[in-house]
Amino acid sequence: MTKRRATFITHTTRFSWLAMTGLFLGFGGLAAVPGLAYSRDWRDVFSPYAGWYLLYCLLVALLLAALTAWQKYRRFDKPLRQLSAAAEKVAGGDYSVYLQPIHRPAHYDYLDAMFANFNTMVAELNSIETLRGDFVANVSHEFKRPLAIIKGYTETLQREDVDEATRRAYLHTIDTAATDLADLVSNILRLNKLETQVTEPKREAFDLVEQLTQVIFASDSLIEAHHLDLAVAMPERLAMIGDPELLKVVWNNLLANAIKFTPDHGRITLTASEHANHVTVSIADSGVGMDERTQAHMFQKFFQGDSSHKAMGNGLGLAMVAQILRLVHGQIQVASAVAQGSTFTITLPR
Fold first, then answer.
1. Taking residues 106-135, what's their average pLDDT?
2. Please, which contacts does 131-136 make with residues 24 or more away whose CB atoms are closer than 8 Å?
């Protein structure tokens, strides 16, 4: 999620004792005007008119105090009460709260900036709450399928009329569903760890070609099972500095996707090349391809554009790829068309 922050040039309004003292002395000077106007000697002001003078000063002080209290209420108390009431609503789960700025944009002060930042925070919380709801709904949906399979086949196995061959087949299905469920939990935990990672990724020297070769060997059985033609174009060695553990997740997911969406007897091409400041890895397939809608959402959690392959994954692979590339400052480009295959090109700093 992109973090937003409201920034304003503020004209701060502060309480000034100097200004208040000057205002008080000014009113005090005005209080002496009647005495000076009706006396022949200025020294007479403090004798017969001393009581009236003090009364007048008291009235002026009361007026000044009332004016100060009103200004304090209008500029501080009222806005802070609005902020407190809004914060209480947000704490209660109401994310539709919006605080209207007090002044016009040209005269924003720090209270307006506080209101704007509060509105931004509420919008972010609303977005997070929406994502959380969607995430819980998706996780619940993904958990239901393997659990339903396990429950259904387990109930069937409790019947006495099930023959041995059927029993073995059902047990294999249960084992597969349990493995899918364990993979789903592992991927959810791994993705959550990636999203909440606050430390920088590791910086280790390693051979990218060796790592890609290991990933290919690990998928060799699937490639042979689907009779796929794998073409590889890489230099003998490609040294770079990065986080090998995170990058291995990227290659495993991209190659698994290529195998998953490429029909039998199809072709997959993996190329790696080095440049002055970066390396490029490309994985292309002759699979089903993607339309524009699928490409727009393919990095979202649990999204699977091709419903015919839902049983072969949980829609978290590309979400992990995108998050890892953000962490390692890499870039990904996708070129795809329906029935013409897809090409994923990763660019990483050396």
1. 77
2. 131/1, 135/301
